[in-house]
Amino acid sequence: MQIKKFDSINVVPFIDIMLVLLVIVLTTASFIQTGLIKVDLPSSSAALEEKPKKEMKISIDKDGKIYLDKIEIKREDFQAKLLTHSKDTPIHLFCDKNTKFDNFVFLLDILKSNGYENLGIVTTHE
């Protein structure tokens, strides 16, 4: 019995597999890039209009002054001004690290007692 030498490799099946993998990669990459699948939604007369939520920024500087969206507010007026905003509005708390902890607790006490639960404390990364 004579042994047959392989002088060449049949690359056609390899090319077929690579083309299938290329199609899979290109298809999934387009979904990852856009982040979502585009859908043309139908219209409805009963659909609710959802307004985009505006975030509320509350800041305390090192002197204990309170700012609501860059406007200074007195401590005694803070609760009345806060109640003009919806309770589901996202709130971001910016507090200077050199201010008294009492100022921070004052804000949290008013926010929690009035049912504001969507809170975030903003910090920096070292």
Summary keywords:
5-stranded mixed sheet, 126 residues, 3 helices, alpha/beta, Nucleotidyltransferase, domain 5, single chain, elongated
Q: How are the SSEs ordered, and which strands pair?
A:
Elements: H1 12-34, E1 56-60, E2 66-68, E3 71-73, H2 75-82, E4 91-95, H3 101-113, E5 119-121
Parallel strand pairs: 1-4, 4-5
Antiparallel strand pairs: 1-2, 2-3
Describe this structure in words.
The model has no long low-confidence stretch (mean pLDDT about 80). About 5% of the residues are buried. This protein starts with 11 loop residues before the first helix and ends in a 5-residue tail after the last strand. The chain is built from three helices and five strands. The chain has a domain at about 55-120: Nucleotidyltransferase, domain 5 (2-Layer Sandwich). The chain is elongated, with a radius of gyration of 30 Å. About 35% of the residues lie in helices and about 15% in strands.
- Element-level helix/strand string: HEEEHEHE
| Overall body shape | elongated
What would you say the CATH architecture of one domain is?
A: 2-Layer Sandwich
Structural class by helix and strand composition: alpha/beta
Instruction: Please name the CATH topology of one domain.
Output: Nucleotidyltransferase, domain 5
Query: Which consecutive residue ranges, at least 5 long each, have pLDDT under 50?
Result: none
